[in-house]
Amino acid sequence: MNRFAFATVSTLAVAAASSVVAEPQAEVLHWWTSGGEAKSVAVLQEEFASNGGTWTDMPVAGGGGDAAMTALRARVLAGNAPTAVQLKGPAIQEWYEEGVLADISSVADAEGWAEVLPASIADHMKCEGTWCAAPVNVHRVDWIWANADVLAANGIEMPTTWDEFNAAADKLQAAGVIPLAHGGQAWQDATVFETVVLGIGGPEFFQKALVDLDPEALTSDTMVQVFDQMRTLRGYVDENFSGRDWNLATAMVMNGEAAFQIMGDWAKGEFLAAGKKPGEDFLCASTPGDGYLYNVDSFAMFDVDGDDKKAGQDLLAKLIVAPNFQKVFNLNKGSIPARTDVALDDFDICANLSAEDMGATSDAGSLLPSYAHGMALRGSQSGAITDVVTAHFNSDMSSADAVQQLADAVANSY
Amino acid sequence: MTDLSMPQSQSQTRTQSAAGKIALRWLLYVLLGLFALYYLMPLFVMVTTSLKSLEEIRTGSLISLPREVSFDAWKTAWSGACTGIQCEGLRPYFWNSVLIAVPAVAISTLLGALNGYVVAQWRFKGANIIFSLMLFGCFIPFQVVLLPMARLLGMMGIAGTIPGLIFVHVIYGLGFTTLFFRNYYVTIPAELTKAARVDGAGFLRIFWSIFLPLSLPIVVVTVIWQFTQIWNDFLFGVSFSQAGTQPVTVALNNIVNSTTGVKEYNVDMAAAIIAGLPTLLVYVVAGKYFIRGLTAGSVKG
Amino acid sequence: MSEWLENHLPKVVLAPSFIAVLIFVYGFIGWTAWVSLTRSKLLPKYEIKGFIQYERLFDSPRWDTAINNLYIFGALFIVIAMVLGLLLAILLDQKIRAEGAIRTIYLYPMALSMIVTGTAWKWILNPGLGIESMVQGWGFPNFEFDWLVNPDYAIYTIVMAAIWQSSGFVMALFLAGLRSVDGEIIKAAQVDGIPTWRIYTAIIIPSMAPIFLSAFIVLAHLAIKSFDLVIALTGGGPGYATDLPATYMYAMAFSRGDIGQAASSAMIMMLVVFAIVVPYLYSELRAKND
Fold it and tell me: Which of A318, B129, C30, C169 has an alpha carbon within 20 to 30 A of A365's alpha carbon?
């Protein structure tokens, strides 16, 4: 432990010296910094404190965690890793392979995580058979949001296939409404892309193409059709979409300028913040097709010295997965609890739909990790795919070229 | 120094017709005004947005005057915005930035002065090569140095601390401070040093009692440059800090750059202006000396 | 002993800084070169695997875009910022009323972090929100200004914002230069009846050669390090049309966990800088020593 960290916890060290049991300590690196998110994390901090722990906050926002990951690398290389870090998807296993993660199996076994988490989500939390991360929530990515009034005025139902969507979009366009509100940032392009892959190819194809990176699937005719649909969607987006933040796109749906938006369930927070009611002012439905794409936030524990910190990790892991935090946090955040035994009476209809679909798709084997949000692939691979997707969407590249580039980029990313 | 423009424009006057002169003056002011608009436009957008309510931003045009002026966003940005689980705004981070910037600016300026003095006045074999090598150091992209630097800071035991951040800023400021002082001192005649040496003054004595008293203008330039660079730094600040030592730019980023939260643009803009106030203030207050300092020497290289 | 110290004191004083630069600049460049030959992923590894990272780099269409953008951006930014800075300095040097205020207006952008001024620029340049819609609102429905969302032109909006940020500083440099030119020579020229513009092109501007060096170094350093600007203004988009080597490298190293690839891109980037900056520095320093 370096001198500064020592100084900041010196009060605690004094306290710890007087008692026999080490007091739980945790420095938590996360990127939930805005109002609603921050309040959600504060719930955890309060629980942690009321169990005798001391929470040191280390927030770093930006780029969906990019800046936090930069800070994390620097801290690990300096031999000064934070106690707990917001990490998700295969990045957890990548860090494990670097030999810097702690084992929290004792907590997981004692708390019976295996019984309450869906199997595919539990797998993300394990590294070579041991538990190495604790899940916080489940965001569904394949949502389509709509302005209820605009749909009603144009006599349109929520589409259940992409053909229906295209028909509805043509009608809206003729009526002078922007069919699809979209922000032209690479991750948003990727978000739309993966819902199209899921909708057109189906869950099995999604698994092959975007999880297993099967070259045959990547170059298949289905993939060509996917890019064709992306090109069609490009026609339904207004001219000024480039670089737009996702929340400005949400605002377009809210004020009736646009009809639909494809975005994860954090978009719900924007609607609710503007006083809109789900089911009345705005509608939520899964994007056309079967399946469920999840984006699970989680915390991984890093190898640290000191009983107080280890106690902090155990306590933190326990609290994160405990029903109370799972409920309160997700009510704030718009997502749903990762554990399946939390009563959802206080949640809105969109969250209930999400939970229902999660259960059903988990049984049917179509509960799939989101590639666009770093759940399915390692960073270099998902990044390579996103490069192609966004280049295709923002140029006049043909679908055949895109498929070829996709295969090349994936091959070049190992 | 500023003796050029007056006689020049007066003599111009005589050669031109009065009407033509007035037209030219008007054109000049119009041009300057247009450029001023270009420079002010983003600040205008930032200030007006910071004074609007979130409701107005969501519904209205982004580039327009606020219908109702409200300073709530400024208050929130300073002391209430969430930068993590603490919702204390930028205030707690401000002090960290001061603790980093002030010593780092002071040390790098002093070292730059000494280095510049050596390179300009005590030329020895290879001095120019050493200077060139230091100058090229200005161009290394900071993203490259993050990881090895983190390692070294860890080995030195100052990772995540304010002294660690000061150290990093001093190292990567040396190229520029040395450049500024070298270009300034090179204009001071070498005879001065020679005469002082004949009188028996030593290396440090000459620096202390001859060069330093002459250096105020270039010190102002260097301090302004270094302060701007260090105060606005984000990359080092985010990588080499830990809880409790994060500078204000990291807090600003935390307020502004949330990914999945509700965006409060008015607070973002107010926070940005607040975070920039110390540098803005330095420019407004010291701007005059800045030009004077540059005039006084650094440019004669 | 003390005589030795006195004789060597200059070197002793310079030594710590020089050693620091050797380690923290050149040592780190060496480190980067080493890592670029490995297959480092999430964290650096030191087992040399050959030139695979460079092959991957040159196979990447995104890198081609990034390096081309650096040439376009670097050249336009440096040239325009210098010309504009010089022009503004000359205009401001005509006994202007309220010079202090105008100068501060030109200079202030340098003081603000691009993290947020980028957002303001984004709105101003966005066709639906900013200038285009404003001018169309004034009754010019055919006015178009959609560079920000046009993949072929978006890089020029980065240039615009970058010039906005730094040209004031260059103006300050040149203004100082104009004020330190020897007034006697100019008076003599005026007495000889040489027109004002000739005085500028033939006497004043050539005498400011050293300022061009300072301005060039400041601008080149900003051009190469331009990073916040791109992230805040376009995020590299549309697509990756406005990617620069610095953003490419950052994306590889920190969001994609591909440190070997990032190191190879850093090496190429530094080679480019080396090829452009070193000859310039050499000729400038050389000329001054004569």
Answer: A318
